[in-house]
Amino acid sequence: MTQRPALANVPVVSLDEITKTFPGVKALDQVKLDLYPGQVTALVGENGAGKSTTVKILTGIYQPNGGTIRINGEPVTLNTPDDASAAGITAIHQETVLFDELSVAENIYIGHAPRTRWGLIDRAEMHRAARLLLDEIGAPLSTSAQLRDLGIASKHLVAIARALSVDARVVIMDEPTAALSHKEIEELYELVEKLKSQGKAILFISHKFDEIFRIADRYTVFRDGAFVGDGRIADIDEDGLVKMMVGRSVDHIFPERDPVVGEDVLQVVGYEHPTEFADIGFTLKRGEILGFYGLVGAGRSEFMQSLFGITKPSKGVTKINGKIRIIRSPADAVGNGIVYVPEDRGKQGAVIGLPIFQNITLPSLGRTSRSGFLQLAEEFKLARQYAERLDLRAASLDQDVGNLSGGNQQKVVIAKWLATQPQVIILDEPTKGIDIGSKAAVHEFMVELASQGLSVIMVSSEIPEVIGMSDRVIVMRDGRIAAEVSGDDLTPETLVRHAAGITAAPQPQEA
Amino acid sequence: MTDTASQRYIPNRLHSRAHRTIRSWEALLLAVAIAIFIVNSFASPYFLNAWNLSDATFNFTEKAMIAFAMAMLIIAGEIDLSVASIIALASTAMGLALQYGAGTPELVVIGLTVGLLCGAFNAVFVTVLGLPSIVVTIGTMSLFRGISYIILGDDAFRGYPASFSWFGQGYIYWVFTVEMLLFVIIAVVYGVVLHKTNFGRAVYAIGNNPTGALFSGIRVQRVKFILFLLTGLMSGVAAVCLTSRLGSTRPSIATGMELEVVTMVVLGGVNILGGSGSIPGVVIAAFVMGLVTFGLGLLNVPGIVMSIFIGLLLIGVIALPRLWTMAVRRRKA
C-alpha cells in the first residue's frame, strides 16, 4: 500500500520455537511468529490452533516451556503481565477488561497513573495526558465520563487508548471487531492505519477473511498448535489461506460407519431467540449423526441449550416422533427423550462433590427408586452397567467425580444420559480438552449409539471430528443456519467458507 | 468397546460402612458429646438426675425442630434467617385468635399455617424472583417481627387454654416430654427424607452444583420452594411448642434464635456453603449444645458467658479437623 520505513524488515518481536504444554495437551509446538514495526500481522487458525495461548505468552500470562522470545533481537523472559507491558507489548482483548465504575481517564491510567511529588495521583496531569491520547486516536470522549455510560465501541476506544498509554511498541488485537457495528469497524480500521503509521507492530487476530485481507500486511497460520506458514498477504488469496488452515494430515482414524437411517425423530421449526439465534429449523432421523459446525459465538450451544429447556426461545416448535412437545425445562426435555452433554463439564455436566454412582443415576432416580425411596443396590447396578459400557476408569463407584480426569468425567456425564434411555443425545464439544484415548472411545461410542437407533447431534469446532463423525453437517453463522452440507460436499474448505461467510466460489487450484 | 480383557472391575465402595462411620464428623461430635456429659457429671452433683436432664432438653428441642429443616436448606445452598421472627409472627397470630375465642385445635392450625405462609413468602422471593436468600430472609426477619410489634406493642397475649399447654409442658411417660417425642419424630422423618429419598438426593445435588443439577433434569426451584415451606412449617411447630411452654406471647419471643439454629446446624457438620451434612450430625449437635448450656447453668454461669462458650465451641469444633490435617501434613513434611 504505502512505502515502509527501512527498518520494517527487522521484527520488533519474534517468537522462536515456542512450546507450551498443559497437562496432557501440547497447546503450542515450536511455533514461530514475527511482528514487524508499522505492519499488521494477522494470526490465522481454527479454534484451538493456539492463537489465544500465543497471546497469553506474549502478554506474560503464560510462560513457555521452551523456545525464545526476542525483542529487537534480544532474548527476553516475560514472567508477568507487568514485564510484558514494560517491554512495550499490550493487548486489547475480546472482552475488554475495564472498570465500569471508574472514569475514562482512570481506566486509561489505572496501574500507572502520573503521581504528584507526594505520591498521590496527579489528576490534572492524568486528564491532560488522557485527552492527548484520545485526540490522537480521534476518540470524541470526555475524560471524566464514567465508563459504564459508554457503548461497546467507545469502551473499545478507551481500551485502545489504555494500550497506547504505556507507550506500546506492539499492540495485540484479539478479535477486535467481534462486537462492533459496520461503521465502528470502519473507524477501527482507520485507527489501525494510524497506529501503523506511528510504527507500531500490530498482531491482529480474526476469523473474518474480509478484514484480514483488508488491513493485514502479513499473515501467520497455526494449526493444532503448530506453525504452518507465514508470508505477505499480497502473495496469497483466500483459498490458499483456507487450505493452510485446514489442510492437515489425518492424525486420527475415525471409526467406520454404515449409517442406517430411519424415520424422523426430531423436528425443529423456526426456533428463535431475541439475541442468540434466529430461524433455526432442521429434521433429525433415527440413527443419524448430525454435526453442527461454526465459529465460536455462532450460537450453536445457545440453540442446543434452548432445545434442552435451559433458555426459553421466543418462538419455535419442537416435534418428537411427529408430535408437538413443549419443553420448558431440562426435566421436560429428559422426559421427552432429549438429553444434552454440555461443553462445560465441571459446571454444567457433572455434579462435582457427588459420587460417580449418584451422578449417573441422578436423572434416572425415578426408575431406580421405589415410591420415592432410594434403592442403593439398584443404583449401583445401573451405574455399574453404564460405567462398564463406557469403560470408565475409577477406583470405586463411590468416588467423587471431581477426582476423575476430564475424559472420565465426560464418560460419567454420557453414562448419566444413556441410563435414561434417550432418543436424541446432544453432545456439545464432546472431546474438547480430553486425552486422545478417551477421545477415540467417545467417537467409537457415538457410532455404536447411532447404530443402536439413537439420534446424535454433535456440536464441534474441530473440523476433522465434524467430518469424520457426521452423516450430515449444519453450519451456523451469526445465530443462523448458513448451510447444510453432506456427502461429497463435506470438505474442510466448504465448512470454513460457510462458517466465515466467504461467498465466492472456490477457484480451481493447481496442486 | 467390547475389549473385555482391558475392562477393570470397579468396586462399589472402597471402604466398609464401619470404616466410614468411624471416620465421620458425626463420630467426632459424638465423642465430644460424651466427653461433655462425663465432665458435667463430675462438675455438678445435680447433673445426673433424670428430672434435671429432662428439663435440660427444653434447651434444644424447639431449636432442633427448626434445625432439621434448616440443615436441608443449608445443604441445598440457601439459608433462612427469619425463622425466629416467623415464631414471633405465628405466636402473635395464635394470641390474636385466642382473643376471638379460638380453641386448642384452631390455635395449632393457625400457628402452622402462619409458619407455612411465611415460608412461602420467602420462597417466592428466592425461587421466583431469584434473589439471594440471605438478603431476603434478613429482610423478612425484620418484617415478620415488626408485624408482631405493631400488633402487640408492649403488651402480651396471655390466657392460653389448659389443653394448649400440653405441647410445651406435657409428659408422655415419666420424664419424657411431648417436645422430646416431637423432636424424635421430626428427626426420624427428616433423616429419612434427606438420606433415603429421591428428594434428599436432589437436595445434595443442588447444594453441590445447582447448574449441574438443573442440567441433570432436576427441578431446582421447585425443590428449593419446598425447602423454604418446610422451614416455615417447622418454625410454626416450634412456635406452638414455645408459646405453649411459656403460656404467653410477647413480640420479643425467640429473639436471636435463628443464630442458635444455624450454629446447631453448622456444629452438626453441615457445610455452610452447601452440599454436605447429615441429620444424625444435627441431632448430636443438638445434644452437645443442650448439655453445654445445662452444665454451665448448673454451675451458675451467667447467660452471657454461656453464649461465649457456645461460640468458642463452634469455632473450636470447626477448626479441629483443619488443625488436625495441618498437623498431619507438618509431620509428613
TrEMBL record, chain A:
SMART domains: AAA. It is a peripheral membrane protein. Keywords: ATP-binding, Cell membrane, Hydrolase, Membrane, Nucleotide-binding, Repeat, Sugar transport, Translocase, Transport. The keyword Translocase applies. Gene3D superfamilies: P-loop containing nucleotide triphosphate hydrolases (3.40.50.300). GO terms for cellular component: plasma membrane. Its EC number is 3.6.3.17. InterPro entries: AAA+_ATPase, ABC_carbohydrate_import_ATPase, ABC_transporter-like_ATP-bd, ABC_transporter-like_CS, P-loop_NTPase. Its main location: membrane. CDD domains: ABC_Carb_Monos_I (cd03216), ABC_Carb_Monos_II (cd03215). PROSITE patterns: ABC_TRANSPORTER_1, ABC_TRANSPORTER_2. SUPFAM superfamilies: P-loop containing nucleoside triphosphate hydrolases (SSF52540). It is an enzyme of class 3 (hydrolase). It holds the Pfam family ABC_tran. PANTHER family: CARBOHYDRATE TRANSPORT ATP-BINDING PROTEIN MG119-RELATED (PTHR43790), D-ALLOSE IMPORT ATP-BINDING PROTEIN ALSA-RELATED (PTHR43790:SF3). This is Ribose import ATP-binding protein RbsA. It comes from Flavimaricola marinus.
From TrEMBL, chain B:
Keywords: Cell inner membrane, Cell membrane, Membrane, Transmembrane, Transmembrane helix, Transport. It is a multi-pass membrane protein. Its main location: membrane. CDD domains: TM_PBP1_transp_AraH_like. It is found in: Cell membrane. The chain crosses the membrane at residues 27-48, 60-76, 108-129, 134-152, 172-193, 225-247, 304-324. Pfam families: BPD_transp_2. GO terms for cellular component: plasma membrane. One of its GO terms (molecular function) is transmembrane transporter activity. The complex is composed of two ATP-binding proteins (LsrA), two transmembrane proteins (LsrC and LsrD) and a solute-binding protein (LsrB). Part of the ABC transporter complex LsrABCD involved in autoinducer 2 (AI-2) import. Probably responsible for the translocation of the substrate across the membrane. This is Autoinducer 2 import system permease protein LsrD. It comes from Flavimaricola marinus.
